[in-house]
Amino acid sequence: MKRLLTTLVILGIFLTWNFFSPQKNNNNTKPIVGILQLTSHPALDEIHQGIIAGLKQQGFVNHKNIEIDFQNAQNDQSSLKTMSERFINENSAVTIGIATPAAQALANTTKTTPVVMGAISDPIGAKLVNNLKHPGQNVTGVMHVEPVLQQVTLIKKILPNLKTIGVLYTASDDSATASYQEFARQAKKQGLIVKPYTISSTNDAAQVASVLAQKVQALYLPTDNNVASAAPTIINTATQYQVPVFSASSSLLKDGALATVSVSQFDLGKLTGQMAAEILKGKKPANMAIRHVKKTYLSLNLKQAQKLNIQIPNELLTHAQQKGEIIS
């Protein structure tokens, strides 16, 4: 009897320990896909939607044959770290980082679990990979390559007399800095004077935009998560000074940006999801070259053009009507 009681006590302790202790996903037959998003704004949300579509296109559906664990850090660095560790603790089969800081947090957490970059502007500059064709480790994914030359050409077509254009970006963001540098390089080739202005967070946006709008004839917003989050405030401030705003992302036209030529955020996400699916099917990230979306779209905001008394050339209107997007 005494021996039986001892056995029951030990069994009870064992069951209690296993119930309350964090468990890895060893008994789950469905692979877990961990998706980490930096924050909420339309461009990143579209990438997320595209990822789900890309996985589905390749036969992977949430709750059917995979489990998707989606985490949004809401721009909090400590949350990025905690959420990245969560994915490793639950033994995720593949993880996906939407925006550079999210991908960096995942890559810094593991050197074995596959990490797929969800539309990163400068993977090498962000120290995520050393080589675009041969990543060589556990990180691969999609590079966000903006058609900057086409964007500058578009700006010149809409504002042929433009001389000075400002660029607002986050200096501490590797991707935003790379985007600014590429725009400045292309703009200077076409004879424009580029005036850079930086912010450290969304809290600086209104004040910096107010100063900037009084010193330039137009404003360009590159790929930048802080800028995208503060876009309504920035664009509203610029509009008060009758300064047109051009953006790298078409999602900012809904906030009042005037025009852009861009790649689809949804398409970027879809390609990311497809690459994650290939890993789930057995491919190794080290052997998967970094990919990017090539198809571009012209987007015009006619409502904003009327507000600023800007005439959009007929050739651009026709092109946007046939193959792009018009907001009116």
Structural notes for this entry:
43% of the residues lie in helices and 19% in strands. It has helices at 2-20, 42-57, 77-89, 100-109, 148-158, 174-189, 205-213, 225-229, 231-240, 265-280, 302-307, 314-323, and strands at residues 32-37, 67-72, 94-98, 115-120, 139-143, 164-170, 193-199, 218-221, 245-247, 259-262, 297-301, 325-327. Helix 4 links the parallel strand 3 (94-98) and strand 4 (115-120). It is built from twelve helices and twelve strands. The chain is of the alpha/beta class and 328 residues long. It is elongated, with a radius of gyration of 23 Å. The strands form three sheets. It has a five-stranded parallel sheet, with helices on both faces. The chain has a four-stranded parallel sheet with strand order 7-6-8-9, sandwiched between helices. A three-stranded mixed sheet has the order 10-11-12.
Using brief descriptors, characterize the structure shown.
about 325 residues, alpha/beta, five-stranded parallel sheet, four-stranded parallel sheet, about 45% helix
Give the uncertain stretches in residue-range form: 4-26
Helix content: 40-55%
| Biggest pleated sheet | 5 strands, parallel
What number is the mean pLDDT? Answer: 91
| Strand and helix order | HEHEHEHEEHEHEHEHHEEHEHHE
Shape: elongated
Radius of gyration: 23 Å
Number of strands: 12
Number of helices: 12
First-to-last CA distance: 84 Å
User: Class by helix and strand content?
Assistant: alpha/beta
Lateral strand order in the biggest sheet: 2-1-3-4-5
Q: In what range is the share of β-strand residues?
A: 15-25%
